[in-house]
Amino acid sequence: MTEGFTRLFSPLGAGTLGLFAAIGRTAVFAFRALIAAVTPPYYPARLMQQLITIGYFSLPVVGLTALFTGAALAQQIYVGGERFNAASTVPAVTVIAIVRELAPVLGGLMVAGRVSSAMAAELGTMRVTEQIDALQTLRTDPFQFLVAPRLLAAVIVLPLLTLVANAIGVMGGYLLAVYRLGFNAASYLDTTRAYLELDDIVSSLVKAAVFGFVLALMGCYHGYHTKGGAAGVGTATTNAVVSAFLLILLANLVITVLVFG
Amino acid sequence: MTERHGSSLEIAGLRKSFDDKIVLDGVNLGVRPGESLVIIGGSGAGKSVLLKCILGLIQPDSGTILIDGVDMTDQRSDRTDAVRERIGMLFQGGALFDSMPVWRNITFALTQGRARDSKKMHALAIEMLEKVGLEPRVADLRPAEISGGMQKRVALARAIAANPDLIFFDEPTTGLDPIRANTINQLIRGLVTDLGCTAVTITHDMASAHHIADQVAMLHEGRIVWAGPVDQLDKSGNELVDRFIHGRTD
Ligand SMILES: Nc1ncnc2c1ncn2[C@@H]1O[C@H](COP(=O)(O)OP(=O)(O)O)[C@@H](O)[C@H]1O
Ligand SMILES: [Mg+2]
After folding, report:
1. Which of A126, A129, A145 faces B113 most closely, judged by CB atoms?
2. Does residue B49 line the site of ligand 1, with CB under 6 A?
3. What is the CA radius of gyration of chain A?
4. CATH code at B1-86+165-250
5. Which portions of chain B are predicted below pLDDT 50?
6. Contact B119, A151 (CB under 8 A)
7. Is the separation of the CB atoms in A220 and A121 below 8 Å?
8. What is the pLDDT of residue A94?
9. What spatial distance separates the first Cα and last Cα of chain B, rounded to whole Å?
10. Are the CB atoms for A236 and A121 separated by under 8 Å?
11. Shortest Cα distance from B230 to chain A (angstroms)?
């Protein structure tokens, strides 16, 4: 009887242990990366390169995501609100939903899809082709040379991308409301401004910075620990994206509850 | 280049297992300053793992590795760092940084990937390319744009660009035609004979082994089963060595 129970639950126990071990390893990795980021030598040129790769080249994707989402949101709030004679809440609810939740979360997810995967693939290839070993024998710390610039760049750039996404998302709602639902342009903007609070913007940016850290950490962690050739690089890439998605959504929940709960 | 003083290397009781698989099972090995040691042994014998243990890329389970009397298995310290600074390594697969042009790869030990003294570094890279028998135009290409054999030679140039005293070569001539292989053999022999470097070379290529080696050691199932001067290799009286050098399968 007990034996049966043990057998039934032992994979669960092993899974839990494995999970804790993975969390521990990730924490150690993150700690090493943070130490590396604040100790010289620094690599400003490599940081710059990452700022451009992560930030500038994510602009189209993040911008379009925000535009489409803002517009769809305005439509839904309008339809939903009409039932309670509350269609006039469109500008207020749109701006709050965009700034507090949708711009940072969807922006973070889109960038994770682009960037965590690319980081895992690049570092993973460097690992399996012994380029990371070669770096070490050439007396360069891979945490300083590879990981720190990626983490820093993502933490710096995600808030900036989110600012842009906030603006474009609100614009998406505005365009749809004004040109399709017949809202007055000036009063739409006035209402938007009246309901937008500084706290919302700050929480939006804080979330974005955390998501940036998470998505770069997952990309670098899975890339750095890649094993087993090309197949290993594939697995690392998948794991990086999936774990970045889950951690972004989890972090969002935690921050939302802490800030607004 | 100035006259240099090769390093000495002493390995005792080195063991390394991955999970249950024993790869190194008590390796004892010594190289005197300015001497060239060639390590032979079948694929999967643990030759590359041995080099990575020496370089500190893999943590051995037990044993000691002394380079010029400094224990490299100790915690990282200024002393081990100073020793590592004088080591060069050619990886089996080349391991060139594919995000950088060839000339930045070659001068990486000097620049640590920074854009300093670019003109001087570019010129130095071209000089190193010439030593490994490659044209200057290769300097501005990316590793992905050159053949495997050329990559190997660029990697060799990278390994020796900072004038190391102790150099490891993991299969330097694999994938090269006999003429190019000979250029590399002469280069490695020259580093030892003319410049006084200590060299440790892994190879399957017996012609290359005869050309490069002062001493030869054979690694088999995680142990050194034979070691001796290169002129004793053909009369070692060791069954495993004979089988290996004559390619017999029985
Ligand atoms: N990082 C590693 N993890 C697990 N096993 C490894 C690792 N590196 C090497 N091995 C195993 O150790 C053995 C020796 O490998 P290696 O030293 O590369 O052989 P070779 O003598 O051909 O260079 C092989 O069986 C290989 O699978
Ligand atoms: Mg090998």
Report:
1. A145
2. yes
3. 22
4. 3.40.50.300
5. 1-2
6. no
7. no
8. 95
9. 48
10. yes
11. 29
Question: Cα(B171) to centroid of ligand 1, in Å?
Answer: 15
Could you identify the residue written with the tokens 């570019």?
A: B122
B222 CB under 6 A from ligand 1? no
Strand-pairing partners, residue B224, are B219
In three-state form (DSSP H/G/I as H, E/B as E, the rest C), the secondary structure along A59-123 is HHHHHHHHHHHHHHHHHHHHHHHHCCCCHHHHHHHHHHHHHHHHHHHHHHHHHHHHHHHHHHHHH
Q: Which residue has the CA at smallest separation from atom 27 of ligand 1? A: B44
Q: Are B230 and B210 in contact (CB under 8 A)?
A: yes
Backbone torsion region of residue B187, taken as left when φ is above 0, otherwise alpha when ψ lies between -120 and 50, otherwise beta: alpha
* Ligand 1 atom at shortest distance from the alpha carbon of B50: 17
| Residue pair B102/B136 in contact by the 8 Å Cβ criterion | no
pLDDT exceeds cutoff 90 at A186: yes
- DSSP character at residue B41: -
What are the residues of chain A with a beta carbon less than 8 Å away from any beta carbon of chain B? 41, 43, 45-46, 122, 125-126, 129-131, 133-140, 145
Instruction: Give the ipTM.
Output: 0.91
What average pLDDT does range A189-204 have in this prediction? 94
Residue type, A136: Q
Residue B67 CA to residue B63 CA, distance in Å, equals 13
Residue B2: the pLDDT is 46
